[in-house]
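Onboarding guide, step 5: your first structure request.
Type a short instruction followed by the sequence, for example:

Predict the 3D structure of this protein.
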Amino acid sequence: MARAAARPRALAACAALALLAAAGCRSHDAARELAVSDVQTYWIVDSPQAGENYVAPAVRFRLKNVSGETIGSVQARARFPAPDQGEEPWGSIQEQVSTWQRPLLAGKEAVVTVRSAGRYHAKAEPEAILRSPGFKDPRVEIYVRIGSSNWAKLGEGAVERRIGAPGALDLAKP
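The system replies with structure tokens like these:
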């Protein structure tokens, strides 16, 4: 008899847990819940290999949670299309902006840096690579998503011909 009485309570508990789980699994719209600002583009210098220097485009931006709720899993990536690449743009290294253990709170922002996996390389100094007649200026397109939602394009622009992030040299001064 005790077993029969426990079943309705167990079923009620399972139903309550299912409702809570369903509430946490709503779909997200990154274009409505996140906003990009303070976009800065530049080139990073990678470690030399076999006597050649490598430079890659990067983008840094602020990503703000403009929804009224805490957002757990946010990812960012960038696409770096060059004028002559057609449908084969340089890809990026995907960045995890927030996790369920370290969420992006409502109204808060995170600074995000995404670099390209594609690079120019030459025996020249990095600054000389950017001045080369064969150098092609890529653009950047910024994409973000929340959880497993679709990627949303939240920004785009030209990649500035400069080595290092703006303000980086100021940090090195005594």
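Each response can be followed by summary notes, for example: Residues 2-24 form the longest helix (23 residues).
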